Amino acid sequence: MVGWSSQAEILAGATAFMKLMHSLAGLYFWDFASSLDFEWAFITRKKKFTWPLIFYFAGRYCLFFALIGIRLTARTCSEVNCQALYTFNQLAGDAAVGLASINLSIRTMAIWSQSRWIAGPLVIVILGHWALILQGVLLKAEWVPGSGCAITHTNNTILAATFIYSMCFDALIFTLSAWKLAFKRAGTRSQLMKMLFKDGLIYFLVAFGANLLATIFMLLNWNSIMSVIFNVPAAVASTIVASRAVRRLNKFTTNGPEMLTTSATHSGLAFRTGQHPTISRNIGVPMQKDLSGGVHVQMQTFTVAEEEDQHSDWTQDGESRNCKKVEDPEICGAEIRADFKRPPY
């Protein structure tokens, strides 16, 4: 049986941990750099900044600086304050997980048209999540001569509770979104709804799997290194998938026409829900956009119901509603001769 608490296993685990961190940092830095055009669009004011994007940018940059801090702990040769450095890394990494869940929670609230019966409980769940996140940073680290910074103690109970809470939270978010998007009449489902369902499913599967793996190793508690070795992969996976979902939604609502209400914006969603089936035709309304790079025309789609006018005195067949059946052929229902008919125009 492997002695996981031995010094040799701890040093081997620390080496594997640093190699894994380097690989994850490279993956995240590549994803971060490849999506900088999204930030640049807001800096140059090509896109309008809205408040839900605060959580998107906060999650991206929290994990970005956390990975930089992890790399610093591996490359430093002189003695540093390991406790402060690891506390920052833990707080920023856990915050990225919490912010990823908030990004998907905002989408769920928007899908439910900001219903207070949905938004209120979700806000309470978010506050509980962050209460666990802030307690999970209580770890201990110290400088080991010849090896560098090393984690000596972690509160595995709080960390495991945080990741289990995250899994349940993600399951709740996905269930609420799926209930609103999937259980609708086939005629009322739009491409945007299908994209939201697909993105939500992918996020749930990736985040749930990563958090489950991290929780298993924390509950096994072989040693101080192995208990937290999969925490960073869970944060990286959740942040990447959640960030891509936010970018896809933002690009979709600005580039593609959809059947939305007039309150549709870049950050919110308001779908055509609860309407009775009607015969509709689409009217394209051109919307002028920035003309500096050419002419850009976007078609905004509305729905106009072709219903019979109930206030009209005549039916579609040309018969009067007010006429009663009488015997006089010259009243109401009398047949009009061909020579009196009005020529077509």
TrEMBL record:
The chain crosses the membrane at residues 12-30, 50-70, 117-138, 158-179, 200-219, 225-246. The keyword Zinc does not apply. It comes from the Eukaryota. Keywords: Membrane, Transmembrane, Transmembrane helix. The keyword Ion transport does not apply. This is Transmembrane protein.
